[in-house]
Amino acid sequence: MANNQYDLIVIGGGPAGYSAAIRAAQLGANAAVIEKEKFGGTCMHAGCIPTKYLCETLHLIRRIKKSASYGIFSDIKIANFAEIQKQKEKTIYMLNAGLIKLIQSYPIEMINGSAVFKDKNTLEVTENDGNALELSSKRIIIAAGSSPRSLPGLEIDHEKILDSTDILNAKKMPKSLLIVGGGAIGVEFATIAAGFGSSVLLVEKEGQLLPGEDKELAEEVKKSLQRQGIKVQVGQGSINGYMQKYESILVAVGRKPNVSSLNLEKANIKYSEKGIDVNTHFETSQNGIYAAGDVTGNGFYAYTAQAEGVLAAENAMGKKSTSDCPPVPRVVFSHPTIASVGAGEHFRASNTVTTGYFPFAANGKAAVLGERSGWVKIVANKETGRILAGQIIGLDAENMISIIAIAIKHKLTVNDLSREMFFHPSVAETIHGACEDVLKKCIDLPRK
Ligand SMILES: Cc1cc2nc3c(=O)[nH]c(=O)nc-3n(C[C@H](O)[C@H](O)[C@H](O)COP(=O)(O)OP(=O)(O)OC[C@H]3O[C@@H](n4cnc5c(N)ncnc54)[C@H](O)[C@@H]3O)c2cc1C
Questions:
Q1: How far apart, in whole angstroms, are the C-alpha atoms of residue 357 and residue 261?
Q2: What averages of pLDDT result for each successive group of 10 residues across the chain (448 residues)?
Q3: Which residue's CA is minimally distant from atom 32 of ligand 1?
Q4: Atom of ligand 1 at shortest distance to CA of 292?
Q5: Whole-structure pTM value
């Protein structure tokens, strides 16, 4: 564009940013999206996709090791970690190429460079080839994402003290790994590192893993990590005694919104180290400037980032869209995978709720797949049977949790779901069974 003026400009090409640019273009905007590293953001290059690729590799190895129980007898040779990493990079390369084509299918200008505010309608961009640009627009969406947080005294040096991106790019797994932080990322990396042969100690300063998550679930995760040979210490504030004993230390204590290098002051945008302030329309304190995704500090998930990017773009283009706060499913790729949805207080025993369980051990498809551990738990209102929360430990948890989330959002009851047709044999029948169990009339469980 000759005069560098756009209807809308997005800073950041991760899930929030590229989704915002596409929705704006769908609504007729002549849009630009600026990305300083790689389109796809943390999710594609240092988060969701690489971690899930490695989890899936481990899952596949476990399944192949079980092949004898299907009458398949074969010796397997597992490539070294560097080779597995190469295969992972191929998948990311393919996804990245697909994303670039997707964005290019719209009239969106893609700019490789780093943006800072000059004033509320102007961005100074240093392109990756060193060229300087000035771009202007009345509508700007900030989707600059987040970065790994470090701890005082445990600054990430990318040699011994690592962040999650360092491990995801490593050519070999350290022989021993101390993981500081027992949240979702710490638990996931403990599973991955131990699966690829590292001796792992996971340390969490709070009294349980996955702080904020239901205690029962956190306890199950701890047991499953211990079964994999991972040492777990909770309620452990200091790691001084362990630092020298481990080849590498992974700091997994959360993410910090990328707010400090955007010159937000020049556009009078309110923010703190917790993120950029936004209202329910994702508009910042400055008219016409919106923010979405990790940079707001609200979610730290790719799917919430994408949803926020879409809403921010719609609002920037004159609509009045708000998120109607659906319950956000949470998933941790431990082994087995755990998933949870609904507010924490619903999981705690109270006079107003009732629960039902269904074990995978009683599910036909789980038996066929040879994955019989874990359960589905449904929490419902005692009086009305309305579904309030759910948890899954085991097979396909990341897919099935959305069924429970949709049931919560649409105010369905356990009676509603127990009258639905779930395909047989399918893993999702466990949700049906757990709803029947709430009603104390589960056909597939023995009489209590
Ligand atoms: C190890 C790990 C595993 C994860 N696993 C999952 C998972 O399984 N599921 C899930 O939902 N979430 C997961 N997440 C979280 C998920 O990756 C993020 O929530 C998501 O990527 C946020 O999207 P975003 O668009 O807000 O930010 P990002 O994806 O971080 O994208 C922001 C982009 O903005 C660019 N940028 C920043 N500043 C500028 C600037 N000044 N100029 C131009 N460009 C700029 C950055 O280079 C970046 O590409 C994981 C995260 C990590 C670290």
A1: 48
A2: 81 98 98 98 98 97 93 90 97 98 98 98 97 97 97 93 97 97 97 98 96 91 97 88 92 97 98 97 98 96 97 97 86 95 74 95 97 95 96 96 97 97 98 98 94
A3: 145
A4: 26
A5: 0.96
